[in-house]
Structures are given as structure tokens and as C-alpha cells.
């Protein structure tokens, strides 16, 4: 994305403007503590850069800004299911239009809140009433939370993920800890596997870790930083890197883009979350840099 091509629609405050890029509305944050962008298409954080830091979030240079498709990179919202549990893959939230409901700022940072409610299109896919609220708290750290409320008269169950793509210097020099040892290997049809307590990468990796610690550490050696990923409301952590062959096959990724990204996702996998009418659940991820 070329930020010079963003056209401003409306200035909401000194730090927050509503912009447009290829027909997609984007909330742009330029604040002394942080720069960030949030697409209303998908309720999708696109970039996040604390002052004095390199970008923490990876966005594909080949990402397609098309309201019928999910955006490659950033933090897609997988909801009300993860993966191919139903159609469309990863649910409909990441391709739905969210509404900006609130924005606040002070000297320390910015908070932006988006909402998504059931409508004719969502009920045709998933026949339940709901209210979703995405809250982005942005300063030297990033805190993203998805709060789901059952506004129906019947109980329903859901899964999903905050599908965070991290910007790294070189996947060959990255190590991850805190994800636990047991995982379901999606490259082996979900086979249950046991791994070590340190994860490195040399091939396609697509794993659902079933007993992660609350905080997972991504040691981005060549950027001389460790990214701390603290998840709440989850029951699994997904770690993904497509490696070269899969990257080449994906039209919205450059052939070598796997080298500079890795996904660590706060995930509701199996079992899913059951909500009675009026009940609420929050899935969150907090991202910070340690040096």
C-alpha cells in the first residue's frame, strides 16, 4: 500500500482521519506515539508502528483491496469460525463492512472502536443475531480485542482468531517460544504432534498449538527485538508461515514474501465458545516489543 495514494475523506481529530484507498475506507492514525491504519472492510488493522520502531505488523505488498475479498496481512478477524469449518473459509467478519463507533485520543495514544451486527447477508450465511465490537488501543503497545455478544433468543457457538501477521527481518533467523509442545499439524491433515519448546522455520508451517502459554515470544533476531504476544480468551495459538511454494501459488503474496512474515494468532479452535442469549465473550491479543 502506498500511503501517498490515500485520499482524505474526513478529519475526525488531530490524530485520526478517515481515508480511502481503492474504494476501501481506512481509519488512519498519525499520533506522536504511534502510526496505524484500520480498514473498515473486515474490521482489519493494516499497519501498526510505535514511535521509534520498525513496523510490527506485516502487510503484503500484493494485498488486494477488494470488498469481496479478505486483505492479505495485518490482523484479519476470523469469525464466527476458524479455517474451513464452514463456508466461507475463516467466516464472514473479515469481508464484512464494520462501522466506526468511537474514537478517543490523549497524549498517550489512540483508541478506536468498530462494530459489526447481524444483517441480511450474515444471516444468510450464519442464522444468528450478534453484536461484535473490535477495540484497538494503540500506543507503544497494541491491544486488540474482539467482544462478541449473543443478541439472539437462542444459544449459539462460535470460534475464530485474531490472525496477526508479524513483520520480521528474516524467517530463517526467527525463533518462537511459549507456544507449548502439542500441536495439530495442518500440513499433515491435523495430525496430533509433539514438538520442542523452541520453534524454528525451514519449511511450510501451519500448526494449531493446543496448550499455549499466555505470552508467546517471537525472537526477531535480525531486527534485534523480541515481540511479546499476550493472548486472552483463547484456547489455542496458530502459528503459520507458507514458505516459498505456497507463497508463489498465492496471487496476493510476492514469491519471497514468506521471508519477512510469520503469523501468531490468538485462536478459539476446539472446543468453540458457547454463548447463551445476552452472554458476552472477549478474544484479545496484546503486542509489545522487548529489547
From TrEMBL:
Q: Which residues form a coiled coil?
A: none
List, from the UniProt record, the residues annotated as the active site of this protein. 163, 265
Q: What is its EC number?
A: 5.1.3.15
Could you list this entry's UniProt keywords, alphabetically sorted.
Isomerase
What's one GO BP annotation on this UniProt entry?
Answer: carbohydrate metabolic process
For molecular function, the Gene Ontology terms on record are: carbohydrate binding; glucose-6-phosphate 1-epimerase activity
Q: Superkingdom of this entry's organism?
A: Bacteria
* A Pfam family it matches: Aldose_epim
Catalytic reaction equation(s):
alpha-D-glucose 6-phosphate = beta-D-glucose 6-phosphate
Question: Could you tell me which InterPro entries the record lists for this protein?
Answer: Aldose_1/G6P_1-epimerase, G6P_1-epimerase, Gal_mutarotase_sf_dom, GH-type_carb-bd
Family statement: Belongs to the glucose-6-phosphate 1-epimerase family.
Recorded protein name is: Putative glucose-6-phosphate 1-epimerase
Amino acid at each position: 500500500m502506498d500511503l501517498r495514494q490515500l485520499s482524505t475523506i474526513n478529519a475526525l481529530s488531530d490524530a485520526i482521519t478517515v481515508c480511502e484507498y481503492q474504494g476501501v475506507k481506512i481509519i488512519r492514525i498519525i499520533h506522536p506515539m504511534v502510526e496505524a491504519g484500520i480498514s473498515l472492510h473486515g474490521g482489519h488493522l493494516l499497519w501498526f508502528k510505535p514511535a521509534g520502531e520498525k513496523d510490527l505488523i506485516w502487510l503484503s505488498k500484493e494485498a488486494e483491496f477488494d470488498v469481496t475479498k479478505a486483505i492479505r496481512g495485518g490482523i484479519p478477524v476470523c469469525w464466527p469460525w476458524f479455517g474451513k469449518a464452514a463456508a466461507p473459509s475463516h467466516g464472514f467478519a473479515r469481508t464484512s463492512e464494520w462501522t466506526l463507533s468511537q474514537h478517543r485520543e490523549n497524549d498517550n495514544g489512540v483508541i478506536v472502536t468498530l462494530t459489526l451486527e447481524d444483517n441480511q447477508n450474515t444471516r444468510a450465511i450464519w442464522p444468528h443475531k450478534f453484536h461484535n465490537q473490535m477495540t484497538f488501543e494503540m500506543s507503544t503497545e497494541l491491544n486488540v480485542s474482539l467482544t462478541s455478544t449473543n443478541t439472539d433468543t437462542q444459544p449459539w457457538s462460535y470460534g475464530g482468531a485474531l490472525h496477526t501477521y508479524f513483520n520480521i527481518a528474516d524467517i530463517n533467523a526467527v525463533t518462537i517460544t511459549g507456544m507449548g509442545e502439542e500441536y495439530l499439524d495442518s500440513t499433515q491433515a491435523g495430525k496430533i504432534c509433539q514438538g520442542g519448546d523452541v520453534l524454528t522455520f525451514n519449511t511450510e508451517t501451519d500448526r494449531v498449538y493446543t496448550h499455549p502459554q499466555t505470552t508467546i515470544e517471537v525472537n526477531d533476531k535480525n531486527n534485534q527485538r523480541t515481540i511479546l504476544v499476550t493472548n486472552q480468551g483463547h484456547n489455542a495459538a496458530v502459528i503459520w508461515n507458507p514458505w516459498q511454494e505456497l507463497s508463489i501459488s498465492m496471487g496476493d503474496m510476492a514469491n519471497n514474501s514468506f521471508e519477512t512474515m510469520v503469523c501468531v494468532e490468538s485462536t478459539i479452535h476446539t472446543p468453540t465458545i458457547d454463548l447463551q442469549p445476552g452472554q458476552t465473550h472477549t478474544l484479545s491479543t496484546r503486542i509489545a516489543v522487548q529489547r
